[in-house]
Design goal:
mainly alpha, three-stranded antiparallel sheet, 12 helices, about 40% helix
Length: about 280
Amino acid sequence: MAACGPTARFGAFIFCESRGRAVRSLDGPAPDSLYDRSSRASSRRRTIDTFVFPRWTNKLRVAVAVAALGVPGYGVLVLGYGGAPETTDVGYAPVQPIPYSHALHAGELGMDCRYCHASVELSAHAAIPPTATCINCHGTKFGIRRTSPKLQPLHQAFYGTDRSPPGQPIPWVRVHDLPDYVYFNHSAHVNRGVGCVSCHGRVDRMEVVYQAEPLSMSWCLHCHRNPGPNLRPRDQITNMTWQPPPGREGQELAQKLLVEYNIRPLDYMQMCSLCHR
């Protein structure tokens, strides 16, 4: 700005006598002037109204209130539904392609579980028996009840038909099906003293196999945290009727089996990676 001789400053302006008019000050308003105080107050109001608490944030109060009331209710609903039998599949008993009775075979006839589920001691999965295993007893030539119409699907699968080759598997419907993110090893449990009945219930009484236990995470941890009462001697693994001795004798047996099977301490039994790999 060009020189203008004697000046007088009023707020944000400088009065230049040589020009006879007020010129805008490049230095801003004079400190503590009326204009300066008014400008700062106006700036604060704009900051509060525009950047800190805009008017639309008033609507958030409604959203916060709804969340405060809805989230706890939603949590209760999720936990309740997650533990319900409809979710854990307790009682699930699908219709099978052949009406196989465990009550007859495992109960009345006393067949060992491992005759059909031969890999249960050797692998993670308890294998479903191939049709050849069933034909050992139910062949068309000398088999038991070989003329029963209930066994026709078995004979057609094994011997074949005009439309299908021989040696086909029976499409059994799986009953106990854990989520894909859960790792369960049958052999690790069976070889450490956990009996079939502990997880599958009294299969020897089931005309149609159903899921007897929830097989949930909390249900598994209940045993992992105190495995002793669920252990049994190795020769009683498939015995559905075996019970531990009562009282102190049973407690001593549980402690003995914990050592015999080399059951790991509690911190290991609760490791997440043990079942989630």
